[in-house]
Amino acid sequence: MEDSLQIHYQLYQPGDVIVGGVTSQLFSLSDTVSFKEHPKLKLIDEVVAVPKNYQQVLSLVFAVKEINGNPKILPNVTLGLHIYDSHFDAKMTYQNSLNLLFNQNRTILNYHCVIQKNLVAVIGGLDSDISFHMATILGIYKIPQVTYCLFDPVISEINDLSLYRMVPRETHQYTGIVKLLLHFHWKWVGIIAMSDDKGEKFVQTLIQMFSQRGICAAFTQKIPTHSNIFDMLNWLDPLTNMTNFLFQTRVNICIVSADTHSMLTLQLALNLFESGTMTPMYKVWVMTADWNFSSETFHRSLDIQVFYGALSFAIQSNEVPGFHDFLQILDPYSAEDGFIRVFWEQAFDCIFPDTNECEATGKCCTGEEKLESLPGPFFEMSLIGQSYSIYTAVYAVAHALHAMYSLRTKHRPVSGLYRAEVVKPQHFQLHSFLQSILFNTSAGDTVSLNEKGVLAAGFDIINWITFPNKSFLRVKVGEIDPQAPWDREFFINDTIITWHKIFNQDVPLALCNDHCYPGYSRQKKEGKLFCCYDCTLCPKGKISNQTDMDDCFKCAEDQYPNMERNGCLVKELNFLSYDEPLGITLVVLTLFLSLTTTLVLGIFFKNRNTPIVKANNRDLTYFLLISLLLCFLCSLLFIGHPQSITCHIQQIAFGIIFSMAVSSVLAKTITVFLAFVVTKPGSKLRKWVGKRLSNSIVLCCSFIQASMCMVWLYIGPPFPDMDKHSLPEEIIVECNEGSANMFYYILGYMGFLSLVSFIVAFFARKLPSTFNEAKFITFSMLVFCSVWVSFVPTYLSTKGKYMVAVEIFSILASSAALLGFIFSPKCYIIVLRPELNSKEQLKRRNTSTQLNATLSS
Fold it and tell me: How far apart are CA 566 and CA 537, in angstroms?
């Protein structure tokens, strides 16, 4: 016996070939099948419509109408259709899938294989469960099924069910969710899904992707499942607990697996909460592409303001020309359309006059009601979302048929135009043509399927603006396009997004705690998710220049951290400059001592024939004064920006010149000492005392130092260098010694000469003579050695320009000691006590005239 309700809720249009469809407009209440009694013939007792889903029926009808009117697609072949409803029920989905296949009134599986003669493909269904139920039937008979739902990851891997999906891959949506959260720096979010296997898979997939990108799921809430739309009492308490939790949590961002059941249930729960507490709930809802404002008739009073400012993903679509005009000619009294009557009554809340209830209620349908007057949750005048996918699915089937007919006609020519009866298509032959489909829709979209039969496309990102009159505005604010280059896959325009008024048009925060601002880094809290952290000040020498950095880092070598430790400053160059006070002081001191030395040299030269000058070896005295003058002047090489030439010269000049000066002092000391020894009768050293000995000492000692300097220049000469690490805020521009050992060898050699001079002078200090220099050399060498002994630790403990200043000071101090202690007594006599500078005075006070003769020679 035929089920009268099934016959009623269908739409059939004849044609040469038939495209079947299973839509989801009607919720039904059916009795539970019991094996204790004979099954009822009437499977459905009550029907409640989702008025907005009637557009799925209309999109299929409109697409067929367009194709039949287009001479470029399937010429002389009429496309027909046959549509049933799934009633959101597995049992009815199986039943109506079989009704599409078989012609007899009562469905008997495989009875003489009586399959509807011209059914070539079926389009449906609304979600992955319905599509999977259909596929288990249609796959047996190799009927191509073009679905328009987003598949969950488990079912999407099944490739042997003759499924073609006119929607993008679900993984692109997961990627888009993650990129959306990262774009707004939302790291602390909640997840809401149905408490079934699909919802569990949704949660697991997101949490796994979140953990890889530094996002935390603050909570996961499950919307209780229900057997049918009328079963509300069993899940009212769990919903109340969920809404109370959502109200109390500080999490601002909620991601929702937005299929039809979960969103209607969530919308109802939020409305019940707000009506009971009189307190609005302010959240940013991020919904999947299944989302659409849609309500059953008994949800007519539900407020949609709870979703103001929400974001959702949506299947990409364009405005379809002619669809609005098509809606204007709908006839609610159409006999062939078994869906329009229940849609019209429940959408407009009226009853048709052919029933007794019309007069009783006074709400009679006139048939003149305007679809434009319906609120958005009940009906929209443009093809969007899944309705648009159905539209493109019909065109995909038509283009595949057209390609198949064209190929057959090419190989089997007939006279005149071909007919469907001449070249009868077989439904299983359509698969190869669907797999390689590529065409442009009338809306301007390019449609193609990949190797797995999935639409090669992405998702739009929609911002929802709702109004108190239950109307809404959808604004496209971005997109996820997997076909674009990797750096342009994700795009969003922040400036046109409308957030909920509570956020004052600022991007809502989604963090476990406040940002860690530049200068601080995040430190994990023990026992908490990694998104919850403390903010700690960067350690000394490190910075963080971005918000929420996991670790601080060091500046570049030529930079140093500022006081706030949130940026780097350029290090200044550190070298002893002529412009700074220290450099000016040393230059002035150098010039003063140089002028003093020059003055002393002038005094000695002017009084070169006086006894005191002649008594101290004039040539050696001149050589010593010139050496001291050069010692003072060589300190200028250490001031200023180090250059390659100055680095080569400064230490070499310092070593050689100082060796000349010290060797001159040594020669003087030895000459004084030997002068007393050779006065003894029979001394064999007499011939060595004189200019030959002093000149030999100076030349020999200087040559040894010069040779060491040449070796230094050969094996590892000094060079300009930048020390970026010794000082925290400055770069030391210095002359690197190159071979440091050679530098200390030169210092050691000068120390050796000084020590020898000091020892000899010390023993000769008490020898009798009016002009005995030994006592003065002893004091000068004592100061000289003290300066250079203290130089080494001081030099090693200082950095930068102060290290250079220490060396300059040591040069000036030691040279000044030689100049002062050796020459100041003589200058005193020459300038202030000239009466003492005479031969009579020299003879009267000398105990050895031979000594004077020897010294004067």
Answer: 10
pLDDT at residue 104 above 70? no
Instruction: Tell me: cis bond preceding 125? Omega within 30 of 0 counts.
Output: yes
Q: Which residue has the tokens 């998104």?
A: 531
Residue 385 phi/psi, 5-degree rounding, is: 55, -130
Q: Helix 644-677 and helix 849-856: axis angle, to 10°?
A: 150
CA distance 44 to 228: 12
Q: Which of 175, 127, 133 is nearest to 151 (CA)?
A: 127
Kindly tell me if the per-residue pLDDT of 155 is higher than 70.
Answer: no
Burial level of 69, CB count in 10 A (0-12/13-18/19+)?
exposed
Smallest CA-to-CA distance from 622 within 690, 675, 668 is with 668
**DSSP state, residue 477:** E
C-beta separation of 678 from 686 below 8 A = yes
pLDDT in tens, 658-716: 889 888 888 887 777 676 665 555 555 555 556 677 788 888 988 998 999 999 988 98
β-partners of residue 193 are 222
With the C-alpha atoms ordered 540, 542, 547, 551, is the resulting torsion angle positive or negative?
Answer: negative
CB 51 within 8 A of CB 378: yes
Tokens 């049918």 sit at which residue? 228
> Structure tokens of 447?
């449609």
The pTM score is 0.69
* pLDDT of res. 561: 94
Query: In the numeric block, which tokens belong to residue 713?
Result: 């220049």
- The H or E element that residue 396 is part of is helix 385-411
How many angstroms separate the Cα of 261 from the Cα of each of 117, 127, 193, 447?
36, 10, 10, 29
Q: What percent of the chain has pLDDT over 70?
A: 84
Long-range contacts of 243-246 (CB under 8 A, 24+ apart): 243/269, 243/270, 243/272, 243/273, 243/281, 244/273, 245/219, 245/221, 246/190, 246/221, 246/281, 246/283
CA-angle at 574, arms to 573 and 577, nearest 5°: 105
Strand partners, 287: 256, 312
Most confident of 90-104, 239-253, 548-562: 548-562
